[in-house]
Design a protein that fits this description.
By secondary structure, the chain is an alpha/beta fold. The protein has 2 domains: 301 residues, Alpha/Beta hydrolase fold, catalytic domain (Rossmann fold); 104 residues. The chain is 34% helix and 17% strand. The protein is built from 14 helices and 9 strands. A hairpin with a 2-residue loop joins strand 2 and strand 3. The radius of gyration is 22 Å and the shape is globular. The relative contact order is 0.12.
Length: 455
């Protein structure tokens, strides 16, 4: 809408009319030693180039109830609406170039009655690193939160992320896993694409339109994505009002997680390995991947991991993977020493990737005070609880209002599952403008039994 108004005013103003200026993001781009670039022109961002109905996800209320039960995700008890869902391909940008990305959107089925409503931006957990893994290419498997949200009367936007083209031409790239800029930008442009679908004459014309208010909701990688999308939103999509951010088992302090993962072998060790590999590709491959990753038998990680991540949505079963059970099997000794000691200059450019993905102390200014639900799992071996607990504390010190919940004895998956109903209840309260009971107290309390949250 802002771009349209600027265009109309420009058409009626003089040659020196300041309205001739097209909106440009006011924040720096990221390069970490790769090619330098500026933001691409904003006039096409969010343009929908193709859309199609998701017939399998256009469901009546009784179907939504059954879908919840079969997926073990009983978020709501009442289902006032059926849903109409669509896959779409839209314009976004990547390292200064205009590109296309894909996603899904679900609308409440109002049977033709006009409705202005709020939006939920659903950001999915890790499902892979390539096009074939995109949620929009896999039917209902990853669509349950989207459909439940639409059944409650909201529009739900579900981007696939860059490098995961679920329909149309291949993306031609590896998904940049836990890389802030491409994750946030493609997600915000997915919202723009939804607006065009909802309000344009070339869309499905359901009569359901967004009112400019939104809650961002993400789990695991989606938790990382939700925090960063909120951080970029005032700079990149300023006309939207974000009323809350549900960041569930997120990775927020990536530099601290790397130090943990390169000191204690476990899930974080592997997660940071994937992050380094995909970030190295996204930043233009400055330096050598073999400066950080081992390149020895049996896996030859520095030489082969990009291809392995692109070849399978669960790429950990490659030959020789079972024998990689120590940090030194994955990372070079000199790199491990540099990260453990905090010698970040010696770890460059990989330390730059970490800094660019770390929310605490980011160079992207925090201009949003959106309420944040920050859920941590005490026994999480991926988004390590010790690191994320301290990460939440640092965000509080920076002024972010946070409701912190840590699930007693829960691992990464349990922390998400045990809090599902509470997550949706929290989101619904933000969407309906109800009081925030915790009020963003930033109390980093003791772990609790999260299964009792809704008692």
């Amino acid at each position: 809408m802002r771009l349209l108004l600027l265009f109309l005013v420009a058409c009626t103003g003089g040659a020196d009319d300041p309205s001739d200026e097209v909106f440009v993001p006011s924040i720096p781009t990221s390069n970490c030693g790769g090619p330098v670039y500026d933001w691409a022109p904003m006039d096409r961002m969010g343009e929908v180039v193709y859309w199609e109905p998701m017939l399998e996800a256009s469901i009546q209320p009784v179907g939504i109830e059954a879908l919840q039960q079969s997926a073990g995700m009983e978020l709501v008890e009442e289902v006032p609406y059926g849903t109409k869902a669509y896959r779409y391909r839209y314009v976004t940008q990547d390292r200064g170039e205009v590109v296309e990305a894909t996603g899904m959107v679900a609308f409440p089925d109002t049977q033709g009655e006009p409705l202005q409503t709020k939006t939920v931006l659903w950001l999915h957990p890790t499902v892979g690193f390539s096009d074939e893994c995109a949620p929009s290419a896999n039917g209902l498997e990853h669509a349950v939160p989207m459909l439940v949200g639409a059944s409650q009367g909201y529009i739900v936007v579900a981007p696939d992320y860059l490098g995961m083209a679920g329909l149309g031409e291949p993306s031609g790239m590896l998904h940049p896993y836990v890389v802030a800029e491409p994750t946030a930008i493609a997600s915000l442009d997915a919202y723009r694409g939804m607006v065009e679908l909802a309000t344009g004459t070339s869309g499905p014309q359901l009569g359901v339109e967004p009112n400019g208010e939104m809650v961002i909701w993400g789990i695991s990688e989606g938790g990382f994505a939700s925090l960063w999308t909120d951080r970029y939103q005032p700079h990149y999509l300023p006309d939207v009002n974000v009323q809350g951010v549900a960041a569930i088992i997120p990775a927020s302090d990536i530099r601290a997680l790397a130090q943990h993962g390169l000191s204690t072998f476990g899930d974080t060790t592997w997660g940071i390995l994937a992050m380094f590999t995909t970030a190295h590709a996204w930043f233009g491959r400055p330096g050598e991947l073999s400066d950080a990753l081992t390149d020895e038998e049996p896996a030859y990680l520095a030489s082969s991991l990009e291809d392995l991540l692109a070849s399978d949505c669960s790429p950990t079963g490659f030959e020789g993977a079972d024998s990689l059970n120590a940090i030194e099997d994955l990372y070079t000794a000199s790199f491990v020493e540099a990260v453990q000691s905090g010698d970040w200059q010696a770890a460059d450019p990989f330390s730059c990737y970490l800094d660019a993905a770390t929310l605490q102390g980011s160079a992207i200014p925090r201009e949003s005070s959106s309420p944040v639900l920050f859920v941590v799992a005490e026994e999480d071996e991926l988004a390590y609880a010790g690191t994320e607990r301290e990460g939440a504390r640092k965000l509080c010190e920076e002024g972010q209002p946070i409701e912190y919940i840590e699930c007693d004895g829960a691992d990464h998956v349990d922390g998400a599952v045990e809090t599902l109903r509470y997550q949706w209840n929290w989101i619904a309260r933000r969407l309906e403008g109800e009081p925030w009971l915790d009020g963003g107290s930033c109390q980093i309390g003791a772990p609790m039994d999260c299964e009792t949250l809704m008692d």
